[in-house]
Amino acid sequence: MSVRGLDRGWRIFATGLSFTVFGCSTLLLTATLFPLLWLWSRDVDERRLRFQHTYHRGCRFFIGFMKTLGLISYEVHGLEHLRGGNRLILANHPSLIDAVFLLSWMPEAVCIVKQALWHNPFLSWAVRAAGYIGNASPEGLIEDCTASLRAGHTLIVFPEGTRSVPGRPPQFKRGAARIALGAAVPIIPVQICCEPITLTKGQKWYQVPERTPHYSFVVGAPLPAARFAATPGESTSQAARRLTRQLQAVLVPSPDSLGEADPVWSML
Predict the structure, then answer these.
(1) Domains (ranges, CATH) in the chain?
(2) Distances (CA, A) of 211 to 18, 63, 91, 258
(3) Up-side HSE of residue 95: CA atoms within 13 Å toward CB?
(4) What is the pLDDT of residues 102-159, one digit of tens each?
(5) Sheet of 187-195: strands edge to edge?
(6) How far apart are CA 93 and CA 95, in angstroms?
């Protein structure tokens, strides 16, 4: 077998190992640490922070584990902009582990979880304790996200609603823009690129690319709420459509913008 074949074989094995470790660690935490965190927490806010910090450390370990095994490499520009409270983090979504990356850098953040997990008898109480939000219905999701931001939390949202499909132009939904307009908090735009693509929509975990994927994250400076608010004579629906178009133009990476430490966010 060639060196390239051995490398690819190793990465298939190591990818399976990584997700096995991730799943087993989650079950172990659910059976041991999470119940203790629940009992030790005096109130809801204290419990939420403890669970969020635990998820943050777990995500940081997982990303470090994958990097150590040679499964990924990454670079991040503007990481300092992710530090701070009560902000809306908006990012494109090319890969399965985008949220894991973001949570690994943010000790206190709320994210949206699939409704199947929200009703999982083993994990639902743990994600609820962290203040995470289920995506049962579009309207309920927007209301819950807006309420979370108004309560002073930091929220991560992928405007596409799901991972990008390779070969198709990303389609941003208006829900993220409606959340931004309703909560009136600063936006942190995050542009994510993965080359070559991996862990995309419809791709199996063992379908690893020919070489190690490299992730690039470009984090923009906070955009004040007034910058994207509805203008005089503009309805909320019109403002949401406008902001959605702007977000898609800014967050979807182009060959000219990849790897820039200070991309132009002037469209927002």
Answers:
(1) 3-251 (3.40.1130)
(2) 17, 18, 25, 19
(3) 24
(4) 999 999 999 999 888 888 888 888 999 999 999 888 889 999 999 999 999 999 999 9
(5) 73-77, 214-219, 187-195, 88-91, 155-157, 110-113, 133-134
(6) 6
